[in-house]
Structure to design on (851 residues):
């Protein structure tokens, strides 16, 4: 546990000066340094895996397979999925939680700072292992991010050092990192809350981090075990899954989805939290139905462990299983719906400050709603049988992962950047970024739903000519989305060094993270704060005064 | 609320309902032709779901858009809004109504699924049983009639082949089916997971190596359709397609006779099917190419 006396604040000899950029390349145990390490590392992976996606979209401009060879195409979608999930969305969210959870609950650091640093420093090797597989004889893994056996056991190069083995190794290291981080988050939130910070005074972002990390804690071991057994099948000729050796490939699917469906909630819950922070601040209203929003996060967490087989409706699952998982999958729409209604009611009648962060916040609700609706359709077994493994699923998933998670991450960065760096992002460029992003993602992912309904199967590099027009639209959206990262990137780089000074609370937000300086000192607070009220008391308590350089729109 | 506000809300709800009804009716045009009896059931369910989805979608997106424009704070206004913390009635409503909706959608989906099973059990898996033991299929109660036509399907990397046991062991690379009759496909995989998917039939079933998987349905609309492999199966996955013909029963019988006499094209060997265009970027990685390998376990 961290020492909670206030004698160690700042300038302690063992700790580097907070203003020194070199600490970001060190084994720092400061949760704020680690948070930024996570975010920046994740963003690099995002750009790289996004580039892979753009190559795929370029290939899909024409029905023929004429840009990259088929093995490389298969490699690109496999690495795109794996890196985006394990190398970008998880780390970016872990970064945000790392930076802000201790601040928001009034703690000086995470419960286990050294473990925290280890969790982060496992990521670069995992990513490098995956990227290194581009250079081994058989190339990278090519069986998709699910790596279903027996196709994942084929190993065409015949070499012991092959892409699939490296994929398993990389994913296992990511898995260990996630488990360590999950332990840390859960312990921190349960034990290190400031006096007065009862569970029902915690900001929703803390609730959603807690529930997401509980999923990690129970789920990641399942997928890690699943891929370890896959590794034995691949390299030691065991027969856990390999039907040629008496194994059962469907068991892998169960183990994989037992975690990998809840994983979607790990990717979306913290962004639910972000939006629940952003909307009240910029609507100057309390979060509508705070308790139901908090409790619905817990419901989502519990239910998420009972829906996995909806990924397997066409896998030869028995009838009762199809029906059971259909009902549970639909049921999870209820707590999710509660949140969407609550956010809408939060901005209703508000006094909206339409900042870039608020744009991303409202944009999140707008796009995530669509993901939720198509999710219900996918839960209905008869519909799923038609659209399973088609572009409908790809479109749906990307509305969750991009329209939801990535949009939420952007909202968080626009909202918390002043706290993390002490400087404001440029609002106009932020709004340009929002609109490019919003138009790009809809142009990219809406056509995919129609392609799926028409019957276009996912993971193909050549297709029948009737699918071309919608694919061209989709690709244009994809390139636009690629371009949309540029204003963001330049805005961040420029503002970090040259931006307007933010002051400690530019948005006049409530919440403990805004009561300390920007960026906060090592160990966060001069004195541990005492919490006396609810988290979103806008209009009820005196709002914080306008600071010296207001971040108003 | 004033009468005027209530009226406005009522008008908006009616408009939303009309728009959703229209979208629901349009949804049929997003789908391929209904070439099997199952497709009609699935499409009815889809139309129902799209109508409800559109109602919720327009309702919430409309509200968000309204807020975006109507509640934007004036420049220089730093005041807070009225602190509404919640509304128990509203919160109960938006919990209970979705619960009812979910039960309704679930019950309807279940009913459609049951009807698809009566038309022909969607799929029956022969579990791992030692050779010679009667497969589980025999014990499965069948709600409908026994199938009129049984066809054996073999999937192997990048190729499909179909065998017609009823017609002196005809084997073909294209699938012919009689319209209006219930067919049962007995599907096996020679190598990895595959998926049998004909969008126009709205049915899809994974084929798991080492098992025989039965899939029953009733094609109804004569024509030529496409069969796709729906479960990723290797480097040449995208090329693993075949033509599916739904014939009138008469044409189907004639085709079987001609096929029996060797007058139809034989199954195409997978490797020769793939004439690959040149690529801009080549990885040079070794692949498991499509090859006429012998199936396992036969």
């Amino acid at each position: 546990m961290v020492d909670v006396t206030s004698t160690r604040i700042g300038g302690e000899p063992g700790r580097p000066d907070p203003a020194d950029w070199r600490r970001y390349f060190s084994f720092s145990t400061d949760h704020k340094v680690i948070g930024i390490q996570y975010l920046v590392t994740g963003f690099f992976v995002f750009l790289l895996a996004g580039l892979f996606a753009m190559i795929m979209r370029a290939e899909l401009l024409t029905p023929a397979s004429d840009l990259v060879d088929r093995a490389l195409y298969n490699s690109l979608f496999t690495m795109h999925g794996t890196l985006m999930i394990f190398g970008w969305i998880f780390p970016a969210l872990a970064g945000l939680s790392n930076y802000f959870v201790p601040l928001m609950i009034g703690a000086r650091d995470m419960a286990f700072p050294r473990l925290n640093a280890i969790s982060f420093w496992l990521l670069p090797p995992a990513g490098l292992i995956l990227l290194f597989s581009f250079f081994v004889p058989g190339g990278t893994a090519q069986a998709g991010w699910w790596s279903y056996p027996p196709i994942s056991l084929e190993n065409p190069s015949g070499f012991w050092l092959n892409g699939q083995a490296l994929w398993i190794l990389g994913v296992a290291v990511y898995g260990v990192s996630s488990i360590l981080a999950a332990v840390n988050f859960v312990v921190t939130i349960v034990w290190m809350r400031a006096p007065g910070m009862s569970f029902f005074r915690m900001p929703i972002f803390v609730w959603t981090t807690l529930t997401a990390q509980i999923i990690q804690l129970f789920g990641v071991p399942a997928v890690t075990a699943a891929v370890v057994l896959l590794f034995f099948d691949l390299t030691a000729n065991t027969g856990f899954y390999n039907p040629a050796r008496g194994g059962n490939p469907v068991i892998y699917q169960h183990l994989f989805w037992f975690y990998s469906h809840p994983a979607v909630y790990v990717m979306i819950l913290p962004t639910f939290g972000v939006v629940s922070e952003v909307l009240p601040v910029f609507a100057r209203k309390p979060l509508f139905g705070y308790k139901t929003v908090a409790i619905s996060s817990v419901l989502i967490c519990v239910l998420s462990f009972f829906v996995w087989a909806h990924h397997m409706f066409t896998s030869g699952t028995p009838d009762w299983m199809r029906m059971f998982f259909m009902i549970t999958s639909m049921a999870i729409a209820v707590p999710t719906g509660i949140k969407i209604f609550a956010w809408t009611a939060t901005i209703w009648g508000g006094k909206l400050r339409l900042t870039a962060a608020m744009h991303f916040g409202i944009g999140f609700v707008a796009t995530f709603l669509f993901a939720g609706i198509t999710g219900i359709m996918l839960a209905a077994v008869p519909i799923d049988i038609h659209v399973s493994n088609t572009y409908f699923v790809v479109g749906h998933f990307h509305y969750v992962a991009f329209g939801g998670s990535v949009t939420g991450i952007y909202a968080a960065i626009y909202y918390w950047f002043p706290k993390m760096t002490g400087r404001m992002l440029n609002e106009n460029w932020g709004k340009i970024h929002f609109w490019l992003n919003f138009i790009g993602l809809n142009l990219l992912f809406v056509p995919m739903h129609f392609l799926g309904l028409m019957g276009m199967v996912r993971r193909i590099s050549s297709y029948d000519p009737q699918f071309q027009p919608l694919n061209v639209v989709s690709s244009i959206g994809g390139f636009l989305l690629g371009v949309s990262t540029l204003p963001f990137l330049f805005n961040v780089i420029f503002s970090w060094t040259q931006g307007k000074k933010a002051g400690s609370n530019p948005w006049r937000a409530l919440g403990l993270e805004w009561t300390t300086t920007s960026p906060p000192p090592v160990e966060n607070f001069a004195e541990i704060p005492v919490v006396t009220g609810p988290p979103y008391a806008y209009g009820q308590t005196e709002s914080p005064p306008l600071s010296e350089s207001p971040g108003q729109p | 609320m004033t009468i005027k506000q209530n009226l406005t809300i009522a008008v908006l709800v009616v408009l939303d309902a009309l728009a959703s009804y229209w979208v629901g009716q349009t949804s049929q045009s997003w789908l391929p032709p209904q070439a099997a009896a199952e497709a009609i059931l699935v499409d009815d369910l889809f139309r129902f779901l799209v109508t409800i989805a559109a109602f919720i979608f327009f309702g919430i997106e409309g509200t968000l858009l309204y807020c975006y424009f109507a509640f934007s704070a004036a420049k220089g206004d730093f005041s807070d809004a009225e602190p509404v913390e919640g509304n128990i009635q509203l919160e109960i409503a938006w919990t209970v109504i979705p619960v009812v909706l979910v039960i309704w959608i679930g019950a309807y989906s279940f009913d459609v699924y049951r009807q698809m099973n009566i038309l022909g059990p969607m799929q029956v898996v022969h579990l791992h049983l030692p050779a010679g033991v009667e497969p589980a299929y025999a014990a499965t109660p069948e709600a409908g009639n026994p199938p009129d036509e049984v066809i054996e399907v073999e999937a192997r990397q990048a190729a499909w082949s179909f065998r017609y046991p009823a017609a002196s062991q005809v084997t073909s690379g294209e699938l012919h089916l009689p319209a209006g009759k219930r067919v049962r496909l007995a599907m096996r995989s020679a190598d990895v997971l595959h998926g049998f998917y004909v969008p126009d039939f709205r049915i899809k079933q994974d084929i798991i190596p080492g098992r025989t998987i039965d899939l029953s349905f009733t094609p109804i609309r004569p024509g030529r359709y496409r069969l796709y492999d729906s479960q990723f199966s290797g480097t040449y996955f995208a090329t693993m397609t075949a033509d599916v013909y739904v014939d009138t029963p008469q044409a189907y019988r004639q085709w079987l006779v001609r096929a029996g006499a060797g007058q139809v094209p034989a199954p195409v060997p997978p490797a020769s099917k793939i004439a690959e265009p040149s690529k801009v970027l080549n990885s040079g990685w070794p692949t498991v190419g499509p090859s006429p390998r012998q199936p396992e376990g036969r």
About this structure: Chain B is about 35% helix and 20% strand.
